[in-house]
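We close this part of the discussion by returning to an individual protein. In the encoding step, the backbone of a single protein was reduced to a row of integers, each denoting a local shape. The sequence in question and its structure tokens are set out directly beneath this paragraph.
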Amino acid sequence: MPEKTKSLVEMMDELFERMERSINEILRKGFMKPSFDLRHCCLEPLVEISETADELIVVYDLPFIKDKNDIEIKATPRSLEIDAKFKKPIKLEKWGTVQKETEFKHYHHLIRKLPVEVIPDKAISRFKQGLLEIKLPKIKPYTIEIE
């Protein structure tokens, strides 16, 4: 059976999808935002987002956090937010002048738009040696049969 040739519209759709994924990846990596918030005395943790066929995996680097009970995770089908409180405030002496005067009290990170829709109540998370891993199952498209 001969291979189906893609139409120009299908090729353009694929190109735009790849471009959108690339732009989202740049924004997710924090290209255009600071890694701290002086007003709320919080730091933004390093984050890595990856996908498998079945799930979205988000890994946070949370140094200074020792107890999983100090971490709060909130999720919706399209967003993910974490907040992790320090046992005692942290001052970063080697940073710039403004940050030297601030005592940071927690980590905070919000992903307003996940790359795929997920099922938040089926998510699992694990915290070990300062790494928080969150596995969020993807919503699978449902095929509707035509009668």
